[in-house]
Design a protein that fits this description.
The protein has helices spanning 12-19, 40-49, 54-57, 65-75, 88-98, 112-120, 140-144, 166-178, 232-240, 249-259, 262-285, 308-319, 344-364; strands spanning 27-28, 82-85, 103-108, 124-129, 150-154, 182-186, 208-213, 226-230, 289-290, 297-301, 321-322, 324-325, 336-340. The strands form 3 sheets. Strands 2-8-7-6-5-3-4 form a 7-stranded mixed sheet, sandwiched between helices. The longest helix is centred in the last third of the chain and has 24 residues, at 262-285. By secondary structure, the protein is of the alpha/beta class. α4 runs parallel beside α10. β9 (289-290) and β10 form a beta hairpin. The chain folds into 2 domains: 12-30 and 263-364, Alpha-Beta Complex (Aspartate Aminotransferase, domain 1), CATH 3.90.1150.10; 40-260, Type I PLP-dependent aspartate aminotransferase-like (Major domain) (Aspartate Aminotransferase, domain 2, 3-Layer(aba) Sandwich). It starts with 11 loop residues before the first helix and ends with a helix. The chain contains 13 helices and 13 strands. The chain binds pyridoxal-5'-phosphate. Pyridoxal-5'-phosphate (PLP) binds at residues 87-89, 111, 154, 158, 186, 188, 213, 215, 221, 226. Pyridoxal-5'-phosphate binds next to α5.
Length: 365
């Protein structure tokens, strides 16, 4: 029997099987992927690369210098500060191993794979619950008190989308350095607000490792590339802890093309900001209480009389719309769902479906 509620967003095959609907009928709001799709240059680069047999017959270049140079240009640091891997999870595994982390403080709710990765790496995980009442905010002293040697946190956060100011994160990193604590900072969604990134600060702090993704913002989760930005000693250690040839030549070329498309980046940021503001306003008009997100998704809370799991199922069965069911986020109270920000037409379909589901529910009471 297929599990009804997937571990992650975007598991459409699993949803289709569990609910008996074709994948092609589903409108997915559960994964936070840029609705514009990949930059055109990604697709043309992949097509052209297939005309070059060496892409398949040669091993990828082991130092990944072209990819690391492209990331360095994109982030404004030197290529010696970059380590790459085939996704966030392998990169985090490399960081835990390279830095010999023993025990990690985990502010929750957070990306579900953090805890699973720590467990696989046999690193102790200590949960620190962030509350909606405090706006899911990071409290520096609370994050640093204890015997842990690392803190794994995200900016913006997932699932809340809350952005923490650079000043707070810089103070946290400086104080953590004084206590020999590493800051593993996941900036998977920072491309939506790049001015808040800490990548420019890595040479000031030997305890700061910034982990970044190309999946969400460039709409290419199928290619599997992620990177770390850190001081040169740490990035060399991370790269050495990563399996060789983990990134295919095709993926590497496609990511180089994506990162150099500034117009796509600027346009995506602008579109997302406008669409997110409109969607948030429309959700609030339905009395769905949202968090103030800086990313391409919105976390919202249903009124307390509604059962979130039942509501999530009704949205699939009646409207073929999949939201992110948030019950498996540690530390998050009941009643939350998360919606990706898609294009205006799709967002309007979501709002209409939510309005109908709420109306039907209220009529039954
Ligand atoms: C906060 C966060 N970090 C990292 C990832 C994984 O990113 P990648 O696709 O680059 O492995 C995700 C995926 O959902 C995420 O939500």
């Amino acid at each position: 029997m297929t599990r009804l509620v997937p571990l992650h967003g975007g598991q459409l095959q699993q949803i289709a099987e569990a609910f008996g609907i074709p994948v092609s009928d589903i409108l997915d709001f559960s994964a936070n992927i840029n609705p514009e799709g990949p930059p055109a240059a990604v697709v043309s680069t992949l097509r052209e690369s297939l005309d070059d047999p060496s892409v398949l017959t040669h091993y990828p270049e082991i130092g990944e210098s072209a990819l690391r140079n492209a990331i360095a240009r994109y982030t404004g640091v030197s290529s010696e500060n970059i380590a790459v891997a085939n996704g966030f999870v392998p990169l985090l595994e490399s960081a835990l191993c390279a830095l010999s982390i023993r025990e990690c403080l985990l502010p929750v709710p957070a990306f579900v794979e953090y805890r699973r990765t720590l467990a696989r790496a046999r690193v102790g995980a200590i949960s620190h619950v962030l509350t909606p009442e405090s706006g899911f905010s990071y409290d520096i002293d609370a994050l640093l008190s204890g015997s842990h040697d690392a803190v794994l946190l995200a900016n913006p956060q997932n699932p809340s989308g809350i952005l923490c100011g650079r000043d707070v994160l810089l103070e946290l990193t400086a104080k953590a350095a004084g206590r020999n604590i590493y800051i593993l900072l996941d900036e998977a969604f920072i491309d939506y607000c790049p001015q808040s990134s800490l990548t420019q600060e890595i040479n000031r702090f030997s305890n700061l490792i910034v982990l970044r993704s190309v999946t969400k913002f460039f709409g290419i989760p199928g290619l599997r590339v992620a990177y770390a930005v850190a001081n040169s000693n740490a990035s060399v250690a991370l790269q050495e802890a990563t399996a060789p040839w983990s990134i295919t030549t095709l993926a590497s070329r496609a990511v180089c093309a994506a990162l150099s498309d500034k117009e796509y980046s600027n346009h995506s940021r602008m579109l997302n900001q406008d669409r997110r503001a409109r969607l948030r306003k429309n959700l609030e008009a339905l009395a769905l209480c949202t968090e103030s997100s800086a990313a391409n998704f919105l976390l919202f809370r249903l009124p307390p009389y509604l059962d979130a799991d039942e509501f999530w199922k009704r949205m699939i069965l009646d409207h073929q719309i999949v939201l992110r069911q948030c019950a498996n986020y540690d530390g998050l109270p009941d009643g939350y769902l998360r919606a990706a920000v898609r294009n205006d037409q799709e967002n309007a379909r979501l709002v209409e479906a939510l309005a109908q589901t709420l109306a039907r529910w209220n009529a039954k009471q």
